[in-house]
Structure formats: C-alpha cells, structure tokens
Amino acid sequence: MDESKKTFLRNLPKIDEIILLLEKQDIYSLAPRDIVIATCRTVVQNLRDKIIEAKEKDLPKFSLDLASAVGKVERLIKGLYRYSLRRVVNATGVILHTNLGRAPLCPEALQRIMEVGKGYSNLEFDLAKGERGQRYDHVSQLICALTGSEDALIVNNNAAAILLVLNTLAEKKEAIVSRGELIEIGGEFRIPEIMKKSASKLREVGTTNRTRIGDYEKAVNDKTGLIMKVHTSNFRIVGFTEEADIVSLVALGKSRGIPVMDDLGSGCLIDLEQYGLQHEPTVREALATGIDVVTFSGDKLLGGPQAGIIVGKKDVLAKIKKNPLNRALRIDKFTLAALEATLMHYLNPADAVKKLRSLKALTEPVAAVKKRAEKLITKLQKENFVSLKFSLHEDFAAAGGGSLPTQQIPTVLVAIKNKKMSASKMEEKLRKMEVPVIVRVDKDEILIDMRTVAEDEFRFIIEGLRQV
Ligand SMILES: *Cc1c(COP(=O)(O)O)cnc(C)c1O
C-alpha cells in the first residue's frame, strides 16, 4: 500500500471522538450505547474499506473530518425510526402485484385484526365446551359453506399447503404430475423442488403440451402416494394441447385407492365470466368432481390475507392435520381474523365484488375507471403545474399474482409528460416519496393506471407531482 493511503487510514476519525461529540448531542435519547458504538464502528469501517479499495486519484474525495462521521452515524440511527414496510400507491395496473403486497385487505378485515390482536382471544379455545379448541374451526364452517368442502385447514401460504399435503400423502412415495404442469411461480417456488423437500418422489408423465389419462394410468404402481394436478396459473400453453380432466383423474384415483389433489393456485370463489372475464375454475367446481384435496391462496383472487387453504375430504384432511409439519406452517391469529372477515363478504357475492378491492379492480366497468381518470386530470389541472402535460390513454391492465395470465382487462391511463424532466427521473422521484407512487414508464411519459388507483389516493399522486 502506498504512503498516501496509509496516511489516510491513520487519519480516520477515532471512535471515541465520534462518541464524545454524539454524547454532547444527546444521542442516547435516540438509541442505547451499544447500538451507538456499533454504528460508529460500521461508519469508520466502511470508510476504511472504501479507502483501501479506492484508486490513488480518488483519495481526496474522502472526507475524514469528525463532523462528517458524526453526521453519518446520526443519519443511520435516525433511519432506524423510519418504517421500511410502508403503504404505496399501485399505479401499475397489475391488480394482484406480488411485489406490492398482492390483495389489499378490506376494512372489515383490518377492524378484526385490531379487535383480535388488541387483547386475548378464543384462538384455540372452544367457548361452547370450555375446553381446548382448534384455530381452524373459526373459518372452516364458512369455507365449507362457500366451497362445498367437508372440512378445511389453513396454513401460512399456498406453497406451505402444497408442501404439507405432499408430505402427508406421498412421503417416501411417488406423486404423479403431468410434465406440462411442473410450474415455477415467482420467488423460487417450483413444483419439482417443493416435491423434493416434501420427501416425495416426482413421477412425471406425458409431455409438455399433451398428457392423457392413459399416461397417468400407466404410471400408477404400488409406490404411488398421490395423483397431483397443478393449475398452470401464470402461463398458458396453446395450440396442440391435451390434458386429463379432473373427473377422469378422480375416477382413476378411486379405482386404485390413490388420493387426488388439485393445486388451484388462485382460489377463485365466484364465477368471473359474469363480469366478462375468462373462466377461472372455482374451488366449488374443483371439489364437485369428488377430488380428495384442493389447495389455494388467500391473497390472490380470493382477495384476503396471505394464507394457504386446504379443503377436501374429511378423512384426508384429518391425516394432514396430524402431520407435525402442520404446526410449523400454521396460520397466525391476525391472518385468521382477516380471512374470516374476507370470507364473510362471499356470503353475498355481489357484495364481495364491491367490498374486496382486488375483486373490485378486476371487475369494475371501464367506464367507471375512465370517470376516475377524468376526475384526477381535473384535479391535476387545478394545480397549475406549468411544465406538466396530461392526457388519457386506453390500454390494458393485468390480474397479476399468477392469475388469468392471458386476460387483457381494459383500462384507462393518465399519461404525464414533463418538459423539464425525463420520465425515468419522474418515476424515480415518485418512487422515493414518503408514500411512494409506483408508475409505469413509456418513452417520455409516466403512466398512471387508474384501475388500481383509488380516489382517496389522488392526494399522494398530487403531492408527488408537486415535488417533481
Ligand atoms: C401462486 C401459486 C402457488 C403459491 O402460492 P402462494 O400463496 O404464493 O404460496 C402455488 N401454486 C399455484 C398454481 C399458484 O398459482
């Protein structure tokens, strides 16, 4: 190492001196001593690392003075008070946006979380009998009523539900799956890999585009534990295709004494066709085939909290409930409270479509979306933004969350052009707001998709544009 670098390193601010200055500024009102010391060490260590890596000519850029180090420590400690997980405005037009938290919760669900979380609850206490109860019991009657299931079990998410079912029914056995259904859902979740972790052996049948019932029949043997069907939620194979329908798979399972499962993914509880959308198999339809187990998510088309819901035959669910893994994957009380409130809306399906925000966004007539867009433009024009130009565009929104991948949902965009700033810079500024507004960028405009923006979020967009 050359001399000038060594000099720089020798002159790094001293931890003791930084702390002395911070103490004068009453730092301990913000954090205890051990956190302050650790933060000082991090700041000095980072500076040291950067100097060691730096090129000779860049050395003068580094500030070694005490005040600058003190400032850095202070900023880091104050940063600990800033919520990292925050609300955002989803102006992307992707309704169940996995990166933006999928389904927003309905007011009733939030109310129930407050009520149940604030104090004690009968989470695992049977009030009628005065003895220990099961947490699932709070929602299983509702789920059974809404889907025609015999019983229900809820876990942390659908990935957990699949793991649990596979492990219970096919541990050290084979699970038969069509090649065309060995899917990957975002976030590392792949059917073959989850199967490995469940200690069941994947038995692939058919081909990518065509799998017949005969392929399953040939694969069945005395090591078969499960026949599994997986909804190809986030993609479609079109053209020369064939798949075995659930009815024939159920018949095959019955004749050979093998349970049959369907991973539905989305968990649709209502007929979406009546709103002009593609048909999405409902949980009730899947169960009506006489299938043993169906799994689905709580926060996709269902529009509730993150959860994995397992429904089906009572005897099969009893086995699944007894699996020790169930305890490790179990649902928490907040989710249960929110799920119960969400499900209740489905007792009146027309109500569910109005009260659950994701369903509302999915089914709202485009005329209503347009009206909201016009309202936003009127509001924006009142602001007299001199360098901004607004226009309306027609386009398509998407369901997201691995649901209805080929469904184009007509929508209206508010496009904003800034004479003094590039669209990507505008996008970044809006993203870094206290309440971030997440938009799409197209060439020199930012696009605000009004299908996923509610009227009470206009103020965040207006505030964001003021700062832009
Ligand atoms: C989304 C999805 C999953 C994973 O569900 P999570 O609730 O995200 O864990 C599994 N299978 C299918 C078919 C899906 O669409």
Outline the structure in words.
The protein is an alpha/beta fold and 468 residues long. It folds into three domains: 3-79, no CATH class; 89-96 and 362-467, Aspartate Aminotransferase, domain 1 (Alpha-Beta Complex), CATH 3.90.1150.180; 105-355, Aspartate Aminotransferase, domain 2 (3-Layer(aba) Sandwich), CATH 3.40.640.10. It is 42% helix and 18% strand. It has a seven-stranded mixed sheet with strand order 5-13-12-11-10-6-9, with helices on both faces. The mean pLDDT is 95. The structure holds pyridoxal-5'-phosphate. The site of pyridoxal-5'-phosphate has 14 residues, from helix 7 and strand 11.
Short description:
The two termini are 46 Å apart. Helices cover 42% and strands 18% of the residues.
Could you outline the blueprint of secondary structure elements for this entry?
Blueprint: H1 3-10, H2 15-24, H3 33-53, H4 66-79, E1 89-90, E2 94-96, H5 107-118, E3 125-126, E4 131-132, H6 137-147, E5 151-155, H7 158-170, E6 174-178, E7 184-185, E8 189-190, H8 191-197, E9 201-205, H9 213-219, E10 224-230, H10 246-256, E11 260-265, H11 283-288, E12 293-297, E13 308-312, H12 314-322, H13 324-328, H14 333-345, H15 349-355, H16 357-363, H17 366-382, E14 388-400, E15 409-418, H18 423-431, E16 437-438, E17 440-442, E18 445-449, H19 458-467
Helix pairs in contact: 2-4, 3-4, 5-14, 6-14, 15-16
The structure holds pyridoxal-5'-phosphate.
Pyridoxal-5'-phosphate binds at residues 157-159, 185, 189, 230-231, 233, 263, 265-266, 297, 308, 402.
